[in-house]
Amino acid sequence: MPSHDVLVIGAGLAGQRAALAAAEQGVSVGIVSKVHPVRSHSNAAQGGINAALNPDDTWESHAFDTVKGSDYLGDQDAIEIMAREAPEEILHMEHLGVTFHRNEEGKLGTRAFGGASAARTYYVADITGQAIMHVLYEQLMKYSEQITRYEEWFSSSLAIDEKGECCGVVTRNVADGSMELFQAKSVILATGGSGQIWKPTTNALICTGDGIAMAYRVGAKLMDMEMIQYHPTTLAGKGFLITEGARGEGALLLNKNGERFMEKYAPNKMELASRDVVSRAEQTEIDEGRGFPDGTVALDITVVPKKRIHEALREIVLVGRDFAGVDITREPIHIKPGNHYTMGGVKTDVEGRTDIPGLYAAGEVACVSVHGGNRLGANSLLDTLIFGKHSGRDAAARALRTDWSKPSGKVLEDEQAMVDDINGRAKGSGRRVSEIKLELGQAMDSKVAVFRDEAGITEALETVRRLKEEAKTAYIDDHGQVFNQDLMGAIELGYMLDCAECSCIGALERKESRGAQYRTDYPERNDEEWLKHINLEKTDDGPEISYSEVTITQWQPEARTY
Amino acid sequence: MAEYTIKVRRYQPESGEPAYWEEFGVELDPSLSVLDGLLQAKDRDDGSLAVRCSCRAAICGSCGMKINGKSGLGCQTQIGEAQEAADKKASAVGGAAEGNVIVIEPMGNMPVIKDLVTDMESTHWTKIRRVTPWLLPHGEPPEREYIVEPESMVDITQSMACIQCGACVSSCLSMEADPLFVGPAALAKAYRFVGDPRDAETSERLTDLAHDPHGIYDCTHCFSCVDACPKGVAPMDQIMRLRRKAGEHGIEDPNSGHSHEMAFVKIIEKKGTLDESLLLQESFAPGVLGKLMPTKRAIKEMIGSLPTAIRGIKTGKMRSLPKLIPGVHHKLPGGAQDEVKAIYKHAEEHNEEFNLYIKGEEGDEEAAVAAGLEPAGAPGAEEGSNG
Question: Catalytic positions of A, please?
Answer without folding.
Answer: 275
